[in-house]
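Moderator note: this is an archived Q&A kept for reference. The question asked for a predicted structure of one protein chain; the sequence and the answer are reproduced below.
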Amino acid sequence: MTTEANTDLAALDGLISHTTTQGVPTLYAPRPGEITAGLFFRVGRADETLATAGITHLVEHLALHRLGLSDLHYNGATSNTYTLFHVTGSEEEVVSYLNSVCAALRDLPLARLETEREILRTEAASRNGGPGSQLPLWRYGAQSYGLTSYNELGTWDLTADQIRHWAETRFTRDNAVLWLTSDRVPEGLDLTLPAGTRHPAPVATSALPTTPAYIHGDDGHVVFNAVLPRSTAAAVFADVLGRALFQDLRQEGGYSYSAEADYSPRDADWATLTAYADALPKKQDAVVGGFVDTLARLRAGRIEQSELDSARAKMLKMYDTPDLGAATVPSYALGLLLGHRILSPEQHRAELTAVTITDLRDVARAAWANGLLQVPGRGADWAGFTLAPQYSQDALTGTRHQSLEDDRVTLVIGAAGVSLITPGGPITVGYDSCAAMTTRPDGARSLTGRDGFCVSIEPTLYRGVTPERIATVDASVPPAAVVHMPARAPEQIPRPRKRTPAQDSPKKSTWAWTLALSVIGSLTAVWCLLAAIVTADEADAANPAWDAVVGVWGLALPLLLVTWKLHQARRRRRG
């Protein structure tokens, strides 16, 4: 059954048809051949917490299980802000697929849960995060849009009731949009889903006190990202930036093979600009310098009209696509899902035509002011970037537990949280700001704060971490943040490593002093012997006894210094 749709989509009249199907907003436009359909839900990884990360992905996998082996081209995808089930096939195949997905969402095959957990962990182990995969963590912390930098911890500990509740409240008809490349809504569709509410995209969090900021990354990659208001000018700027980096770093400098930029909507109002360039280790500094110079040129407004015209022409070409309605219906459906403004092709063309070099300059300045740069090797302070926080501002008080591997490191377990005191600074996670704490039966605990800082407690690596101290931590962390992990094999439980040469330096330094001073004493003795021989041969020596005095002190002083150094070293070792 279908009824008339929301009039907010009136801008698409004549291009895309719109209606509702059993309460689900539906967009469709014709295209010859097989039908492609997609069912969007406004739920993704950014809606989760670190402790429940992966719950949306689990629902997606469980919803597709009953389809089994098939020649049908179908799949599911979970992103930051949406989940998509899509299929390509005949009308009957599309109807069968969508009906199966909705039936599974109404009654998840939770007997399959343990198997799907293993599948997701296997998938994660084979997934390559890419060169910029840690940028979300540093920008947003261990929450909201930063969760894509983390493993899906929830796959270890989520219960069937939690997963069922997530499906019942997030995978609803009021939180969905359907799209099809068809001239009509096929007969026989059964999209029966529970009623609910449309959930807006999560509010972004921030872990960066100052921007522009930089972090250190792996060799061979330079990555820059910025969060910008969604606009036609920002999308054009991304294309201009990508072309400029390619021109400067590859064609002219010969430093990079890949140099590109991307504009990706994050939610209804904001988008992420990402720029990337690769580099050989010996050319990394040149790539970073060229990258910064390109951004500086664009910020200064030194943009050729031809650069703008080329980017604009490329974007206008999409409107020359045959079956324009079918080609654009997925993006319009996603815009409707997220609550983004709906522009007709004519309106979008007008905005593209109106973009000026001044607009691009303003976007470049906004991107720089909000930027986060990942660089290999040395930092980027010289370019005006500030190193992102590497340590917490404060350390907590509590019982102190010295590391068995490094005397300079101390674990503090307090009433308000835990701190790790290191030579560089403290790392602190408060219990009330703990995003997740993993637990092991052997007593190990790992606490991650919402700001992204992490403190691991391994009882085997610190003095005096008793079960009573672990119980204090367990009683203080909110239960919703606790993730129970399986037992480890005995060989997987860490043991104190042999001290490094730097940590053994006091002992080695003592022996070095002993050897050096002994050599000085021996040379002094030889000098005294030679002096005595010369004195005996010279009948008119003024004061032969002076050489003997020098010789005695030359031998005694090194021995006194060696004795003092050994005494100090013994005191340090006892401490």
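Archived answer notes: The radius of gyration is 33 Å.
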